[in-house]
Amino acid sequence: MTTQTSRIGTINLVTIPSTNQDRSIEFYCETLGFEKRTDVPFGGDLRWVEVYPPHGSTGIALAPPCEGGATAVQSGISLTTDDIDATHAELRAAGVDVDAEVMRMGEPVPPMFWFRDPDANTLLIVEVA
After folding, report:
1. Cα distance between residue 11 and residue 107, in whole Å
2. pTM
């Protein structure tokens, strides 16, 4: 028998710093194919922007960095693809800062590569079967 110890249900959003939200929106939406679902003012001169991949329900908030906070992070965000080599080639052709090669460590670890967004935030793409 399991006992519920939390009312937390899902991961809704992850937040990464964006020093230029318009540039970030263009990258995530035009280059990666995400959908912008939220772009509203908040806190005076700031904007709250959320982008989502075409499949799945967890989004990325592109937020201005906190004062004195990091402007580039190892995000811990892992995205999926069904064809790692095609995705790597497409992003490289689009001028995205991707690793030189796809990492292949052998089973059970899937093929993967890292890429950086315009603010140098690092994200991972992993092939899923």
Report:
1. 28
2. 0.89
